[in-house]
Fold this sequence. Notes:
There is one protein chain. The chain is α+β, with helices and mostly antiparallel strands. Among the domains are: 64-270, no CATH class; 426-598, Histidine kinase-like ATPase, C-terminal domain (Heat Shock Protein 90), CATH 3.30.565. It has helices spanning 12-30, 32-63, 65-96, 104-117, 183-187, 232-235, 269-272, 274-321, 334-392, 396-420, 430-445, 466-486, 519-524, 533-546, 574-579, 581-598, and strands at 122-128, 134-138, 157-166, 169-178, 202-207, 214-215, 241-245, 248-256, 259-265, 427-428, 453-459, 462-463, 494-503, 507-514, 549-554, 563-570. Strands 6-5-9-8-7 form a five-stranded antiparallel beta sheet.
Amino acid sequence: MSSPGAALPTGTAPESLTGALRRWIGGSVDAVSTRMIAIILLSSMPLALLSGLVSWHSYQAVSGYSSARAEAMARMFQERARQDLSQDNVFLNAVAHLDDLGDPQDCNRALRVALATQNGHTLDLGFYDAGGRLLCSAGEPVHDAGSGASMPQPSGAVVQRVSADGPDGRRTLVGVTRVGWSHDEIFGDFGHVGFLGRNRPVRAWLFRDDQAASPLCIDCGWIAPGSLPDLRAQAATGHGVAIAWHGESLATTRIGDGLDLLTVTEPTAEEARALSVFIMRVIGIVLILGVGLIAVAVWANRLVVTPLQELTGVVLHWRQAGDYEAREIRYMPTELRELSRAFTQATRSLARHENNLREAETKQALLIKEIHHRVKNNLQIIASLLNLQANRIRQPEARAEFASARDRVRALATLHRYLYSEGELQTLNMRSFLEELCGQLFQAIGEKEGRRIRLEIDASEMAMSTDQAVPLALVVTEAVSNAVKYAFPGGRAGKVRVVLAATSNGRARLAIEDDGVGIPAGRAETETGIRDGLGIQLIRGFARQLGAGLEVQEGWTENGGGTRYLLVFPLQPEAEAEDLEEADAGQWAGATARGGSTGA
């Protein structure tokens, strides 16, 4: 006995769990609602994927607006700054060729007048001679730096030089041009930004190497950003380069002469919500698909599965009770309604056929019972007639033949009674049948069973076809009759034993033996004085009909007497026995003819 804490056999729980899971999955997959959901899911999946891709591309496009706008702003500022520098260069050319610059006294006045008439982008002017000496200036003094070629560049400004021929050689006009505009120039109705920057936050700074950045808008109050990625290499290419940086978009480009422009744009409310909108769209698609699948499952269960279940219940009730009650099921589809009507007609027709079959079966049972009763009576009548005829014959040989024929007919009558008395055609209680059959043989021959000759029957109940039971009964009849008649002459005592048992591989073994003097010696002491050849011929013929070989052992006892018949034959099903019936009948007829030709 196992203890309460004993463990289950290894693998029992996982295997049972796996089997239950497989059965649950198989049952779920086989369900109509599951299959309909799978079909709708497969059909709607491309649309859902397409909607997701459209939402993703929309998100990508909206999220890229800020970077594209920063790059466009940077290029626009670059173009406007270069236009202003080009105009300032034209202005410097015009100033450099003024005649007033030749007079040192008029030079300063001419530069101040020229600076006053300029648009305000040029901050400082300086006029140098060929040796790099400052002749005159306007605005902040432009410090002498030799020839002016190595003059340091101010932050947010560009130094431009224009040369002109003078009386004492070539002279150079140096101008410091500020790159930048006012708020109105940038964001006004006629500003540089125009519709691109209107209502869209944008800022820009100018920077040169390690100098502090200066705002592009002079009066906007923009504060230069702190840490920024190093974009000088990209800006030096002259093309706008846009990147995302901490929620903003940065774009850089080169204005000229080492001056770079940094443009920063912030995402609009629409752009900031792009990711949230994309997530909400995906959630919406999933929710719509889920709600649709749930609705399909509910309505499929209500409109298809439930009518099918009710129809199945009606069919099961018909199988159990035999009464099919077709009723109108709510929400039943037309196809199922037609199926129910067709099944109703089929069950009614089947019920009529079943009633007809039952009536025919009852009649057939009565007819078969009457036929069996008549066959049994006719066999008994034939046996009685043979017995009466045998009693009227005086010749011992003829009387013995009639007696043998009578015993064979009685054997058939007994077998027929056992086969059909209770309607069982395949199973015989062989022990009681053989006891009655042998008892009849003893009585017919005039021997009292258990007195001089003892009878032993060792047989069990077994299934046997009627086509095998008949030759088996006749073999026993012939063998036992020969033993009782010839094995114990002169009043000798002895024993006749019949053994029938099933062996392996669906076979049976029949042994009929006696411990008498043996058939040849017994026949020699009878009054006929000749050998009965018909009996042994019939035994051989019936053995062939059984599909068995016949082995006759004479002198098998210790004293050298006795006769034993051994037969081992296959137990054939009823169908196989019917297939061999015609051939067996021919063998039986042939054996009878050969036996009859030998004489009694």
